Structures are given as structure tokens and as C-alpha cells.
């Protein structure tokens, strides 16, 4: 959910997702409740056991022997029973720990014994490597590998993702080429393979030396359960040291072919072969994956730093000027997932990593779609062609930019999961003249619009301004909050950590969650239990005194046995009932408090402004919802029960001893001061160690999340060992704090035992003194010594559990912190039910900022959009166009002016109602885990017919109908089982279903090929004809039919007119953008 929190907020789905999480949470708490009821029952049996033993032993002794119960028999036996029960009382928790350890070990065993990704390029003498899918557990010789061995010996652990495939047969963002970029085929033209056909050098294992990768009869799938191939009948030889371009329509299988080469797909049949000793792989993903480190770290990616080559790579990827802006240059941290970089800058860093690595094979998945025309051209020509191909690297470029074909040595055309055509340009022109003519026409159109201007790319300037703004914002926050980031380039803020004792406010916060009535019931039942236990002991004392007197006077023991035995039985039953009530009230109250705390944190954090999620790593948030919540759910119950039990038990024992011998109070005072001093000393260390342990978990979770997101890249670069080492370092940091914490337990345990022994000594000496010099009842003396023996061990546990209470309150403290975050303003007055019914939007002197402490990003905007008007926002990145569009959703803070929709000020409308009344097709589409039905219509307002109509409009009906469960088919996390273009179309279907009068399109075509873009434009022109549309587009051609264009610069509108009027003005900024976009 937190991965797609921005989209969730834009759709106004916070309550829906909160409701879903709370439903799952209720199921989890029900299971936790059942576990705790079982543990409480087990504890009750353990608690009751000594009473039953005592009752049985003393009853049978007096009845069978006919002897009276005397103090020497009673309390010597009772002392032995108490010692035995100290051990027995730990059996339930020990048994629970054993069961948990057994379950965890089995789960770990299943995970650790799962097959792993195969090392395709192992050290050895063989020159051919086999990549028969990612996860063959053992290496088999090429000669023995066939369909049979795949079906019977193959094991694997396929990742839950599918092809991320975009592209088409027409260009998207044009790249300027010369008019003869795709030459006409000539008889004399020969392919590289043709030139070497007569003198191929075959190596010792049979793979031609000019082939880097060979796939024979390959069929590949993402699905572990069904043998349904995503791509099939793949027969291809990737030429070594050449540029191979893979193109094809949306969902055609381009990215899947790349993933199959990387070994990320399940192989159903056939094989993938490499030159084992010579081949290493680099991978640049369509969605760039960056680590939370410096820009240099992301480019080097574990490789040694070579200044000369590094500078060449920066120049080829147009990163030099960007680096100059950063406060610490390329040593500046770029934040989690490259937070401080624009989309194009992230992609260029990813490309730079692949180029710098100098791997023999580079798979580049649609890396040019995020770049504008000029930057894309520079990266392609200077980076891919000049640096990679000329250094004899094998480059596999997946793209929908047909202008790249003029440099391609080999072309693969994918369609419907199969290779429809492959070969050189000349071979494809001969085999499919119609397809070749389409390519030429597309390139010819680009050539006609080509500009010879050598001015710097607008998008490069845009991205630099965006980067400069991000740096300035980070620096301002750093100065305001006294945090690093202004000079050393460190933008990642350390996690907040409290110092010193846990505030009493935290305890009050937790007690309020439990409730006053529940607390009163818990305390009353525990007092009742302890009072009845003391009564049982006093009854035994009275029984033994009466027995001693009967023995001394010669009275028959039988006459007194039955009344005392009956009385003791009644008290024992009452004590057990009180213990049962005490345990039940505690478990139910703490579970209810845990539910309340989790719900409060979830409701509050989901209402936090987007700025919080932009600057807080997801791992840190997940740590609060996992580790801290687990402590509140489970650990506090046991700790609270033990604190109350040992505290009341120690108090009762001390009261008995003071009653029996008042001088014990004087002797006890210095020991009590020793206990308090040791406890304070211990708790100071234990508390901080626990805080360190909690804080050190966040980097572990963050690293795990980061690693899982980039598994394909990590495995392609064979960087598993390095990431495992980092994980080990972070786990070691966490376990070190844990180890030291348990060492402090051992330290306090020894010292508490010593003080406990002093108590026993004082009580024993005092009892002897009173027995000699005063008339002390022997039964009371024995009772006092017996109780003080228990105190010597119980006080140790009391101190430990008291310390654990404060340590565990750290988790409550951390939950409280997230439950008190500043929220967006969700209150307001509900507008009319059909609002907005027109779609008129008015900006009146509007100024916007992301937070109060940050600068204004949009200033003094005065503009009005009429119902049904199609408005395009243009300008440099960081000019304020996205901020202006998102202000309709109140993602930004309106610090001046008004925004009116159909005459109603949006700040007076509840933000959730406002967002649900609007629609958006975002640049980065997100799908949530669940069914397709739930992703399209989570509120369940639309019928199946409407859902299928929306899918048909979005050109997705054939995709969904082809799935086994149709609308009820599962969507993987993040929508990974659909391509980026398909995810974009799902967002289009959502917009249709919402029937909003206002639609915002935030660079919605950035990841689409021309065919998909045409679908979107047709829907806008027809289905959305009566809706007010506000769009942000890099492709000027997509907005030429719009009614109005707004050009922004530095947060201000500098031009406003129709596209044709603006483009006709020579000094128009829009005209220069249009020329640059050509």
C-alpha cells in the first residue's frame, strides 16, 4: 500500500484500503487472541498446580496417616513445592518458545531449501554456459540438457512478476536522424552473420564464436503452476559485439525475451546458452532501480573507480552538469529510489551504470522512453553506440524508437509472444516489405520535422532546474531542522530516537488505549487473586498451628482435618477462579488496546501529507507496523502479567515478614535501596539498547525492500554477494544490540540474586531472634521464611520484567509518534451529491507550497477553465505544471488565493470527497494487490457490464478475457504481472468508471508507444469529449488539438492561448518547446 500511497491519495481510497487492512488486522488479532487464551490456560494450569499438589499432599497425609498437620511438615513441604513450581511455572513459556522456534525453523527450512538462481557464468574450463531459466539447483552439461530434463529434473523459484513490456511499431519520442537513416536494401548489402558465414569459428563446445547468446526452441513462463508460456518457439542467436534491437507492439513479449535472457523466467522447453567464461551481463530496467546511496555509488555499483572512464560515461549520459548542481557533487545521496532525481535523470544513472560496468552483454529495457529527444539521441549515439558497441559489447536494446534501427546489426520483432521477424534491416525488408515501409515512413516523418538547432535540450535544463529545486528544498529543511544535508550531500535523515526514560505521557497514552474500566478490572482481579493466595497460606498456617496444639494436647486429628481441608479447598477454588478472571481481563484488554493503537497509527499515517512519504523510507514505516506492533500484540501481555504477579507477590511476602517481625523493615530498607539503585542503573542501559535494537531494524527492512525491488538488476550484475554482505552487516548491527541487551539481563540477574540472598539471611536471623527472645508462633515464622525464599528469586524477575515494560514501551512510544503526525485537513462541508456537474475550474491568485517551511512553487495563478475545455500545461520540469495540476487534489498546500470547482472553494470540501470527485491518469501507474475487479472499482459501485465496457474502451478486454478468472484474476504486487503500458490503460479504465467531470493526465503517455497513445487520444476526443481535461505532456503532438495551452515558468503562467496561435508566434516559448520536441 505504501508503495502506491500517492495514487491511493489521488483516488481518495484511503478509507477503503484502511478498511481492508483493518479487516485483515481483525483476523490477525483473533488468531493472536486464541494463542493468548491457550497460553493463559496453560499458565492457569501451572498456577493451579501447586495448590492441587498441596491440597492432595496435605489431605492424603492427614487422612491416611491420621497425624495432625504440624508447621515442620507443612512449611518444609511447602518450601519444596515452591522451589519445584519456580521451574514448572516456566514450562508454558518455554513450550511456547519451542513451538515458535519449531515453526520458524520449518519456514526457514522451506525457504532455504528452495532452488536458487543458477550461476550461469561459473569459473571453469567450459566456454559455454547454460541458462535454462533462473533456478536450476544443479549444473548439467549442455549435451545432456533437453526437454525431458527440463520436465523432470528442473526446480526453480520464479519471481512473482511478469513482463514489463511497452513498445510499438511506430516511434514515440522522436530521435533526430539523417534522412538516410534506414537505407534501402541493396543486393550487395550483407549482414554481419553473412559476412562471417563462410569462415565461422566454432569453439570446442559447438557455439559459434560470433554468437553471444543462443536460444533454441525456447518457451518461457512466469507461472509456476501452469505450463502456459508467455513467449514460445524462440529461436534466436544474438550476435556477439553487436547491437541487437528488439521491437514490437504493446504486450508483444519484448521485455519477457530480455528477462528470459537474464534468467528471470521459468523455462518450459529449450535452452539459453552463453559463452561461459567470457560473458558477463549488465541490465538497465525500464523502471530504473537505484540504491539509497550517492550518485557515484549507483553508477559504480561495486566496480572500482576509474576517473577517466567515469568521466566519459558521465559525458555520454549528459550527467556532468547535473552533478555540478549537487552540494557534494556525485557523492551526494540521491535518496530512496532516487527521490531527488527526475525520472529522466534516474534513467540516465541506470544507463550510466550499465555502460560503466563494461559487461560483455548489456540488456537495456526501453531505457530511452523516459528521455527527451535530444538527451535520448546523445545517450544512444554517445553511450550505446560509441562506447558500448565500439568496445565490442553485445547490446540488446528493447525499445519502440524505430530511429534506433539505423544502427542495429540485428533486429528482432516480437508479436503475441513470438518472434515474427528477425535479421538485419535488409533481410526484414526482403521478408516483410510492408513492415519495412512502415518503418521508413515513420522515420521520414521525423526527418521532415528535424531541427538543426544546436541549442541545449529544454528537458536537460528542465531536469537540472528540478534537481536544483529538490536540493534547495532539502537544504532548507536541513537548516530549519538542524539536520545534515546542506554541505555533505547527506539527505537521508536519521530515524528519530528518544533519549532517556520513556515519558509518562507514553504510559498514559497506552493506559488510555486500555481504558479506565478495563484497568480497574485488571487491578481488582489481580489483587483478588493475590489476596486469596495469601489467605490460602494463612489458612495453612492456622491449620498447622491447630495441628501442633492438637498433637501437644492429644486431641484426635480427624476432628479438625475435615473443616480445615474443606476450607482450604474452597479458598483454592476461589484463587483459581480469580486467576482465570485476571488472565482473561488482561488478555482481552491488551488485545483491544493493540487494535486501537494499530488503527490509530494506520488512520493517522495514511492521512499524512505526501511530503512525509517522500522523505521517509518505506522500511522505516513497515518497521513500526511489523516489529513494534508485534511487541504490543504479544510481548506486553506476558510482561504485564508477570509484573503484576511478581510485584503483588513480593509486596505480600514483605508485609507478612514485617507483621511477623517488625524489625525486618529496618533490615529490608538498605536492601531495598540496593534493589532500586541496581534497577535504575540497569534500566538506563537496557532501555537505550532496546531503542538501538528497534532503530537498527529499520535499515534491515529497508535494505530487504530495496533488494527485492532490484532483484533482476542485482542478479544480472552478479552482485548478490555484495548485497548479502550489506544485509549481514545490518543484521549484525541489530543482533549486536540484542546480544548486549541479554548480557545486561545476565548482569542484573547475578546481582539481584546476591541481594535476594541477603533478604533470606535477614529473615532467617530475625526469625531465630524472635523465636528465642519472644513468643513467636512457629507457623507464622515458617510462613515468613517460606515467602521470603520466594522473594529472593521473584525480585530478580520483577526487576527484569519492570525493565522489559519500559523497554517495550519504546514500541508504544514509536507508535505514538506516528499516531501524532501532522495530517492533511480531511474535514469540511459536503458539497451537493452531483458536484461537480459542470467541470468549471477557477484559479484565483493561487500560490502553492509543499509545506509551510518550503518555498512557494506556484505563485499568483489567475486562470479559468470552462466546462469541457481541454487544457494542456507545458513548461520546464520544475516550472510548476505538475504542482498546479495536483493542487486540484489538495496534494499541495494552498497558501494564498482560491481554487473553485463549479463555484465551490475546494478547501471547504472534505479532501476525500474532493479527490473521489476527480480522476487522474498518472505518469507512474500503480496497481494494487488483489483482483482486477477491485483495482478498477474498489468501492463496488459498477456492474460487470460497466467493468467490461471500461476495459473495452481501454483496449484491455482481450487481455483480461484471456485470463483464467477474468475480472477476478489476481494482480501481483505493484501490478508486475502487467506491462507498464497495460497498467496505464487500467488507469484509463478507472477514469472512465469514475465518471468525473474533471480529468487530470500527468504525462500519461510517457511509457506508451504511438499505437497506445492513439488509443488514449481517441478516448479523450470521444468518450471524454464532455469532460474538462487538464493534461501535462512532453509530446507536443498529443496536445495540438486542445483548446488551451498554458506555459509555466518558475511557478507562473507566462503564456496562455490556443496551440496554433502560440506556435505561430516566433518569440513564443511554446513554439520553442514544440521545435525542441521535434
TrEMBL record:
Residues 213-441, 841-1075 form the ABC transporter domain. Residues 166-176 have a biased composition (Low complexity). InterPro entries: AAA+_ATPase (IPR003593), ABC1_TM_dom (IPR011527), ABC1_TM_sf (IPR036640), ABC_transporter-like_ATP-bd (IPR003439), ABC_transporter-like_CS (IPR017871), ABC_transporter_C-like (IPR050173), P-loop_NTPase (IPR027417). Residues 159-204, 475-494 are annotated as: Disordered. GO terms for cellular component: membrane. Keywords: ATP-binding, Membrane, Nucleotide-binding, Transmembrane, Transmembrane helix, Transport. It is a multi-pass membrane protein. GO terms for molecular function: ABC-type transporter activity; ATP binding; ATP hydrolysis activity. Gene3D superfamilies: ABC transporter type 1, transmembrane domain, P-loop containing nucleotide triphosphate hydrolases. The chain crosses the membrane at residues 35-58, 78-99, 507-528, 568-591, 643-660. It is found in: Membrane. Its main location: membrane. It comes from the Eukaryota. Residues 1-100, 520-804 form the ABC transmembrane type-1 domain. This is Uncharacterized protein.
